[in-house]
Design brief:
By secondary structure, the chain is an all-beta fold. It has a single domain, classed as Rieske [2Fe-2S] iron-sulphur domain (Rieske Iron-sulfur Protein), CATH 2.102.10.10. Helix content is 0%, strand content 50%. Strands 2-3-4-9 form a 4-stranded antiparallel β-sheet, with no helix packed on it. It has a 4-stranded antiparallel β-sheet with strand order 5-6-7-8, with no helix packed on it. The chain has a 3-stranded antiparallel β-sheet with strand order 1-11-10, with no helix packed on it. A hairpin with a 2-residue loop joins strand 3 and strand 4.
Amino acid sequence: MAKRVPIGTFDEFEAGRIHGLQVDGRQLILVNLEGTLHVLDGICTHAFAELAIGFLTGEEVRCPLHLSQFDVETGEAVSPPAEEALRTYPVEVEGDAVYVVLD
């Protein structure tokens, strides 16, 4: 069953940055790409590395450990050594409130 969890207000998530989140026991990241919010798993699928301390290059998150890159919109691994995609989560905005939908 899906669970809608409040994670903050829209203004808290500055564009062009990776924001680390702890939500319902999960380590996630939120990226604001020009006003569109994206939430993904916050741990690299190649090796345990926190993507919140990684780098945002255009529309890709780069792992700080081995520099794997993931597409922010789809979670797809777009450069090695990672081969497995990051899980993405639906984001809902109501007024200024931001929610992530977990299953």
